[in-house]
Design brief:
Number of helices of chain A: 6
Strand order of the largest sheet of chain B: 3-2-19-14-15-16-17-18-13-8
Structural class of chain A: mainly beta
Radius of gyration of chain A: 30 Å
Oligomer: heterodimer
Number of helices of chain B: 4
Number of strands of chain B: 25
Order of helices and strands of chain A: EHEEEHHEEEHEEEEEEEHHEEEEEE
Chain lengths: 361, 417
């Protein structure tokens, strides 16, 4: 690139913009259960020896092509009735379930009161201690999917709340329809969160919350209550009361099944999850002004042919150039970046040009 | 937890240069990259949703199928920042979309090698017409290159003429503008910053047997035939920085005629004898058994291999845990369970209990015998902070390391940037 002189950039020539790039993320339910292997031993679902959560991939996780899409776990508070429903010895992974709930609550909601009590998830935006969701499923989306944040008002989770054999005979659609970039959310330690309404009932009942910057959906276990007696197939007769003594209701599953067992049951009931993500692209825009009386000559060696300007035929004509590149220099005239035009731009003394150069970070 | 400062010799920054191998095998208009076979998924016939021989950027849409397992796709709202996707022209942005409209694009983006056979003369100009609005819509005739990619490379070819005369468009070896040229384009994602000189190899197979091989043995870009009918001859050049292989060798490697040129190409006539000009036929160039109208096309196969160059900036940090330092842990299990935490607390005083005892973690060689107490910790992670005390990163050890009070330890932490 041939440079003959520099054009200083003034204060009004530089501005910044922020562009939001979104992606539509559809997560088909069959991916989390049934496509890659037979439930519950799907090859795209990884369980760990610690048993505190399970990871779901979009392809068998032993493949290098697999992407992690979300983690699943369950938990309940120490104040939940589930904690006292069975003796601690019979309550499978009780401390781990309580720890998971507390961990999410600590990170996302923080503490309250003079004694620094960990807040609980609530079915409203006030965090006033009313409407607590004391037992919940946690869907922790991969950063790869939600990028900078989940776009507000785009979360849609369809769950099957029918019988174990036919879960999607009673679909339940949870959406954050009341949330938007201008309202319908509340800000807390873990960022903005919105409410997941049960759109099927249309009665404004809240069945969960979604944390947009953290990429975490919290679904209360009561989303399944009253709809299904056999939430979890269980592993055999367990002496529980109810219409299906060999199977678990949501509450029984949370108490008597392992974390991975309850997560498997939830996977069996996920019909669809979708949301849009957001990536912030910060840009600096430089308005490069080309005055009429400048940049009409080039020091490119090809500009001259036998001491004559190549791009004009009559000597009396005004000089003409074709701008192909803009160099951005610092105060010491060191080249920092060069911007290429998609096609050369004709320049002669009769015209002035403003070239808009955008630098994305 | 206490913070320690890195000393002047504790942080080293250098560049790690690597040369990843890259191999393309072309057979029957299919490309195989690094011998990876085509994999089918539960939904898609191609797991990565890109053709064989292509790499998928970010490998984002794995095993997707429109309708049953829908694709992830990007979109952006038209606004005053005037940002759109690359495929959207300025005219489309202004006229097709209204402010607030979502402009969509698609994933995955993919890349592979591309062959372009410039038959006849690569420098051919063709005359085109266009209606000129400045001339009352009358037709205006103008010339433009038939093969613009060749024109785009002419300056670089002449520039590298200093390295070898074989690069030059016009030299004592001939005028490339007047020759047919076989151009193979290699996207930068395959080689990084440069193709490593001396690593390029092109093999021409006929019914599975090598009938010719080119290598850049001089490391100056000349592709010299090392085996074949004209060993020692230069059949083309490599543009290492730009990722192009330009072949002009037009001697016969074998006398067996076969279909290698698409019938849409005017010259030469078919079938043809194997030459370097036909190397890579079928590599995303619309040449296949149908277009060449000959099953003999499947007798030819080609191998292109080279090494790329990637440069990774690496920061190496030495975190020291000297003797007498880092011997305490704030982990609650570090102290014996059940001890009172505070000795005294009131509205004026908050005093921790100084008599609390530490758990003895020294392993004994004997059963039913506790070893003598020694002050020791197990270091499981090292955290890196900036000048303001902000946590920047955590290096976690694969196994906790035992640190005794009288030991010096140094942890070597590597950060690829």
């Amino acid at each position: 690139m041939a440079v003959v002189n520099y054009e200083p950039l003034g204060a009004t020539d530089v501005t910044t913009t922020k562009t939001l790039l979104h992606e539509s993320i559809p997560l088909t339910g069959t991916i989390v259960s049934g496509t890659y292997g037979t439930w519950p031993d799907d090859t795209n679902v990884k369980n760990y020896t610690h048993g505190m959560f399970q990871s779901v991939y979009d392809y068998p996780y032993l493949s290098s092509s697999a992407n992690h899409i979300f983690d699943l776990t369950v938990g309940y508070t120490t104040a939940s009735a589930l904690a006292a429903s069975l003796p601690a010895a019979s309550n499978v992974q009780q401390s781990k379930k309580q720890n998971m709930y507390t961990q999410f609550a600590q990170v996302l909601l923080g503490y309250t009161g003079s004694t620094n009590v960990v807040r609980n998830f609530e079915s409203d935006l006030t965090l006033d201690g009313a409407g607590k969701m004391k037992s919940a499923f946690f869907v922790n989306f991969s950063r790869l999917l939600y990028k900078d944040e989940v776009k507000k008002g785009t979360v849609s989770i369809t769950l099957g709340t029918g019988s174990w054999a036919s879960p999607f005979s009673k679909p339940k659609l949870l959406t954050d329809a009341s949330a938007s970039s201008t309202g319908g959310t509340s800000n807390t330690l873990g960022g903005d969160y919105g409410l997941l309404y049960d759109s099927t009932l249309k009665d404004d009942s809240v069945k969960g919350v979604v944390f947009y910057q953290a990429g975490i959906a919290v679904i209360t276990s009561s989303a399944f209550v009253n709809d299904t007696e056999d939430f979890n197939s269980g592993t055999g007769a367990d002496g529980m009361a109810g219409a299906y003594p060999s199977r678990y209701t949501p509450a029984e599953s949370l108490v008597s099944a392992s974390i991975s067992g309850s997560c498997n049951a939830l996977r069996h009931r996920v019909k669809n999850i979708s949301f849009n993500n957001t990536t912030e692209i910060n840009s600096t825009i430089y308005f490069c002004r080309v005055p009429h009386n400048k940049y009409n000559y080039s020091s490119n060696p090809t500009y001259l042919s036998a001491s004559q300007i190549r791009v004009k035929n009559i000597a009396a004509d005004t000089p003409v150039t074709y701008i192909t590149t803009i160099g951005l220099y610092n105060a010491n005239n060191q080249l920092l970046a060069s911007a290429k035009l998609s096609e050369p731009l004709k320049k002669d003394p009769s015209n002035e040009i403003v070239l808009r150069v955008r630098l994305d970070y | 937890m206490s913070l320690r400062k890195f000393g002047p010799n504790d942080i080293i920054t250098n560049t790690l240069k690597a040369h990843p191998s890259c191999e393309f095998f072309i057979y029957d208009s299919k490309i195989y990259y690094n011998n990876v076979p085509a994999r089918s998924g539960a939904f898609s016939s191609q797991v990565l949703n890109v053709p064989a021989g292509h790499v998928s950027l970010y490998e984002y849409n794995i095993d997707k199928l429109s309708g049953s397992n829908n694709f992830i796709y990007p979109f952006i709202y038209k606004n005053s920042s005037r940002v759109a996707f690359r495929g959207v022209t300025r005219s489309q942005f202004d006229n097709v979309y209204s402010y607030g409209d979502a402009i969509t694009s698609s994933y995955p983006m993919s890349a592979s090698i591309t062959r372009e056979f410039m038959s006849g003369a690569a420098g051919t100009m063709i005359t085109r017409t266009t209606a000129d609005a400045n001339c009352s819509g009358r037709s205006v005739f103008y010339s433009s290159p038939k093969y613009p990619h060749f024109y785009a490379l002419k300056n670089r070819l002449n520039f590298y003429g200093l390295r070898s005369q074989h690069y030059k468009v016009s030299s004592s070896y001939g005028d490339k503008s007047l020759q047919p040229v076989n151009l193979i384009s290699i996207p930068t994602i395959f080689y990084g910053s440069q193709i490593k000189p001396g690593t390029v190899s092109l093999k021409w197979y006929l019914t599975g047997s090598v009938i010719g091989e080119l290598r850049d043995t001089k490391q100056n870009g000349e592709l010299i035939e090392v085996s074949g009918s004209s060993a020692g001859s230069v059949a083309g050049v490599v543009l290492y920085d730009e990722g192009f292989v330009l072949l002009t060798g037009s001697w016969n490697l074998n006398e067996q005629r076969m279909g290698l040129v698409s019938s849409s190409t005017s010259a030469p006539q078919y079938p043809v004898k194997p030459q370097w000009l036909y190397f890579g036929a079928g590599a995303n160039d619309d040449v296949n058994q149908t277009t060449v109208a000959s099953a003999s096309f499947a007798s030819a196969s080609f191998n292109l291999s080279f090494k790329g160059t990637t440069e990774t900036q690496v920061m190496t940090m030495f975190a020291h845990a000297g003797r007498g330092e880092a011997n305490y842990s704030s982990n609650p299990t570090f102290l014996n369970f059940g001890q009172p935490k505070l000795r005294l607390t009131s509205s004026q005083v908050y005093e921790e209990d100084g008599t609390r005892t530490i758990v003895n973690t020294v392993s004994s060689s004997y059963t039913d015998y506790s070893a003598s107490f020694q002050r020791q910790v197990y270091i499981s992670r090292v955290a890196i902070y900036d000048d303001s005390g902000n946590l920047l990163g955590i290096a976690t050890l694969s196994n906790p390391v035992l640190k005794k009070e009288d030991e010096d330890l140094a942890f070597k932490i590597r950060l690829d940037i």
